[in-house]
Design brief:
alpha+beta; 60s Ribosomal Protein L30, Chain: A; four-stranded mixed β-sheet; two-stranded antiparallel ribbon
């Protein structure tokens, strides 16, 4: 009986020894299974991508059959569209200009009605030629750009499920900088298509410096007298 117990103990000790030897030669992933959320150099980059999307919200302005004037209700719809899209003073709004035009000039009159109303609100108007258009209506377009941050940043603060032996930055590092940049920029279009700088900006700045220096020089001369 004692001999059998001794043999079983020796066998168990041998198995434990082999398990420990295997553990010493195997990575943590091999023992416990890999983790998809473990930090990796690809996931731990500090630079987070900002995506700029082009959107074109549209509103349809209706006219009475055979009439070219813009009804008060349609003016209210336009004002609601402007407020909903947060269109700022001076920005460009496109108005549909139908390709097919009647001999009465009704299409031109309707376009002029919508364009004049928008210009009176302080917006720049550009025509947009269309191949197909509905009867007794015109479409108004506003092209805008929206900046969004890497979707991984939307998860907020979190720690990978891995064993963290890589000593790499956590996946959310860099999200704050990217989110701040996307929120601060006045027009996200500038991230993909920067506007050309006007020479007048530099001229105004130089003129202000010249005036300041001339005033400082004059004050120094007056004090010396």
């Amino acid at each position: 009986m004692k001999q059998n117990l001794f043999k079983k103990s020796a066998t168990l000790a041998g198995l434990m020894g082999m398990l420990m030897l295997t553990a010493s030669c195997t990575s943590p992933e091999g023992l416990f299974g890999g983790h998809d959320n473990t930090a990796t150099p690809e996931k731990a980059k500090l630079e987070k991508k900002i995506t700029v999307s082009e959107l074109t919200p549209t509103i349809i302005v209706d006219f009475e059959s055979g009439r070219g004037s813009l009804a008060d209700m349609e003016k209210g719809k336009l004002l609601g569209f402007i407020e909903a899209q947060d269109i700022e003073f001076g920005e460009t709004v496109e108005v549909e200009f139908p390709k097919s035009q009647g001999s009465s000039g009704l299409s031109e009159q309707r376009f002029a009605e919508v364009a004049t109303f928008l210009q009176d609100q302080g917006f720049s108007v550009e025509p947009r030629a269309t191949k197909e258009n509905a009867a007794n209506s015109l479409r108004v377009y506003f092209v805008k750009y929206v900046a969004t941050v890497d979707p991984n940043c939307q998860k907020g603060w979190y720690k990978p499920e891995g064993l963290a032996y890589e000593n790499l930055p956590l996946p959310y590092m860099g999200c704050a900088n990217a989110d701040a940049l996307a929120g601060m920029i006045a027009n996200p279009r500038d991230l993909v298509d920067p506007a050309n700088e006007s020479s007048a900006i530099g001229e105004r700045a130089a003129k202000a410096v010249e005036q300041y220096r001339a005033g400082a020089a004059g004050s120094a001369a007056a004090s010396s007298d």
